[in-house]
Amino acid sequence: MRPFYCHNAPRSSLVMAKLFAKIWRTGIVTEPLSIEAGRTLDLARRIEDRTRRLLGRALAIRQVDAGSCNGCEIEIAALPNPIYDCERFGIHFVASPRHADLLLVTGPVTRNMEVPLRKTWEATPDPKLVVSIGDCAHDCGVFRGGYGVSGPVASVIPVDAHVPGCPPEPADILAGILKALDRLPEPGSRADSRTGSTASRR
Question: What is the three-class DSSP state of 106?
Fold first, then answer.
């Protein structure tokens, strides 16, 4: 077998050398962490501490789009991105409501999503929490009165906390999650021993 020779090796080395030289000349171009991002990280750490104390593990979240314009989804999608990286604080998004502790619901509930939303809530194991995200989830916003709109989230399923905004920022979403966690009874308390369901919180 004849030996394999890479004829482009000198050219590749030159390209890499130019690339490293450009990186060296450019330096660090990222911006320092903003005050808002610092607040977000503080909230994420508080959620991690609260979740580990209440549940003994990470927090599993299922996001449900009940009919939004996707503005709130963009802000929710920012939570696990490289800037905030909330996964490192034990805040995980899951694909199935059967694995979730908390539902994040966005948008006004459309008629086509009313039954799926209710079934998603029913499939989520107790104790479960619901946080409605954005103005539309609270009062239908600009979609109020639309022929395809069933109503706000609270008219379909129980809501533990609401996050206002159009859309709310990641820090506000985390603050809403933290507020909802306050509805869970402390481990060993009478409420916790009496029932493992959300009946005492509704």
Answer: strand
CB of 65 within 8 A of CB of 73? yes
pLDDT on residue 36:
64
**Tokens encoding 38:** 């610092």
> Residue 127, class by beta-carbon neighbours within 10 Å (0-12 exposed, 13-18 middle, 19+ buried)?
buried
Rounded CA gap, 66 and 139, in Å? 13
Predicted local confidence at residue 38, as pLDDT: 73
Q: What residue type is 105 in one-letter code?
A: V
Write down the pLDDT at residue 7. Answer: 55
Q: DSSP alpha helices (H): ranges in the chain?
A: 9-26, 35-54, 71-78, 114-123, 135-139, 170-181, 190-194
Q: CA torsion sign, 143 to 146 to 148 to 153? A: positive
Ranges under pLDDT 50 in the chain = 4-5, 193-202
Q: Where are the domains of the chain?
A: 35-183
Domain 35-183 has what CATH class? alpha beta
